Amino acid sequence: MMQLKLHVWYVAYGSNLCESRFLAYINGSDGSVWPKARGCRDKTPPSRDISGEIPGSIYFAERSKSWDNGGVAFYDPTLKDSITLVRMYLVTLDQFNDIFLQENGLESGDITATITNLSVGSSVVHGTGWYCEIWRLADVNCFPAFTFTSPVRKHQAVQVAPSRKYVEVIAEGLRSAHGKNESEALDYLRLESL
User: Fold this and answer.
1) Is 99 helix (H, G, I), strand (E, B) or coil?
2) 35: buried, middle or exposed (CB in 10 Å: 19+, 13-18, 0-12)?
3) Alpha carbon of 153 to those of 6, 57, 74: distances in Å?
């Protein structure tokens, strides 16, 4: 008997705007092109991906060894006067779980029961990783939408400039998902130059 899989939107706003970067979390990566990742247990590609906007702002913080010790993007949902450009991937709930675990450096865990009970506009913190706060966003095309970020808000964070390599990956995602040229991408990211 075939079991139906629940699908959700994973809403990406940082380097995962770039589809090939995101797919490293699905398929796995040996570290030669993208930072090392084990991949999802289910390697089925996303059913769809669409671009969009959500209220809130991104900021750069922490220092990532994977990205030349530069800051990485986080989403602050409390800054409602700003808009964050996103790319949404329709994945299974189990794949979303695996992506969350990889982004937070966790070997195992199950957040599926916790997040399916979240109401729109609410969040839950799971663990202590950089991206440990999961937000339930408004449904898109009848599917629940989720993203994850730090529980530290922009005004609380120590801002750290991203590396050129990281910005180039985000800029590629902004180009492919939103049609932004390099200048427009830098303006959106509030950066002077690559």
Assistant:
1) helix
2) middle
3) 31, 10, 9
Specify which residues 84 forms β-bridges with.
Answer: 54
Tell me the pLDDT tens digit for each residue of 18-41: 999 999 999 999 988 888 889 999
Residues in the chain, overall count: 194
In this structure, what token pair is assigned to residue 161? 């400039």
pLDDT (mean) for 149-169: 96
Burial of 1 (0-12, 13-18, 19+ CB in 10 A): exposed
Task: Say if strands 83-92 and 70-76 run parallel, antiparallel, or are unpaired.
Answer: unpaired
- What's the whole-number average pLDDT of the chain? 94
Q: Give dist(CA 98, CA 39) in Å, integer.
A: 8
Phi, psi (rounded to 5 degrees) for 149 = -155, -170
Contacts of residue 7, Cβ cutoff 8 Å, sequence gap at least 6? 47, 90, 91, 92, 93, 143
Least confident of 72-81, 109-118, 124-133, 163-172: 109-118
The token duo for 78 is 């409390």
Handedness of CA 172, 107, 62, 49 (dihedral sign): positive
Read off the pLDDT of each residue in 95-121 and give the average, rounded to a whole number.
94
Tokens of 185: 């991408």
Pick the CATH number of 7-184 from 3.10.490.10, 3.40.50.970, 3.30.1340.30, 2.60.40.3080: 3.10.490.10
